[in-house]
C-alpha cells in the first residue's frame, strides 16, 4: 500500500504556489503520443486546471485535518465537501489520462469522440502507472470512484441514506491523495517545483 508518511502541521507550510501553466509539462508528459492535436490540447487545458484546484483544496484540507488542538481552518462541513471535491478532481485526472491511454492502445486518436467507460480506461491506467500493484492504485481508483459516485446518482431519492463519514479525511481525501501520488511520482521531475501534491 502507498502511505502518506507525514503531513505538515501548519497551514502556512502547505500552501499552493503553482500556476496552471506550471502543470502543463507534467500533463503533457503523462499523455501518450499520437492523440489528435485538438483532443490533446483540451485534455492538457482541462487537467492542468483540475490539478491547480486539487492543490488549493489540499492546502485547506490537510491543515484542518491535522490541526490537533489548534484552531479550525474550515467550518467542519466544508471539510467533507472539499474531500468529496478532491475525489471528483482526482477522478477526472485518472479518467482523462486513462482514457487517452485506452485510445492509443486501441488505435484511436480521440478525434471520433469515442465514449470510454470506467472499465475500459482503468486497466491501461493501472498497467501504466502501477503494473505490479506495488502502490495499490487499482484499489485507490475504485475508492475514489465510490466516493465520487455517492453524489453522482441519477435515481430520485438515492442520496438520502448517504453516510457522510465516507467523505472524511481518512475515507475520502487520503485514498484520493495517495492514488494521485502514484501518477505524479512517475513523472516527478516534471512536477511544479513547489506543488503541495508532491510526496511528503
Describe the fold and architecture:
With 200 residues, the chain is mainly α. Helices cover 56% and strands 0% of the residues. The protein is built from six helices and no strands. The protein is globular, with a radius of gyration of 17 Å. The N terminus is likely disordered.
Concise account of the structure shown:
With 200 residues, this protein is an all-alpha fold. The protein contains 6 helices and no strands. Helices cover 56% and strands 0% of the residues.
> H/E element string?
HHHHHH
Number of helices: 6
Mean pLDDT: 85
Number of extended strands: 0
The coarse overall form would be globular
| Rg on CA atoms, Å | 17 Å
**N- to C-terminal distance:** 15 Å
Low-confidence stretches: 1-12
- Structural class assignment: mainly alpha
- Give the fraction of residues assigned to helices: 55-70%
Query: Strand portion, in percent?
Result: under 5%
- Sheet of most strands: none
List keywords for this structure.
200 residues; mainly alpha
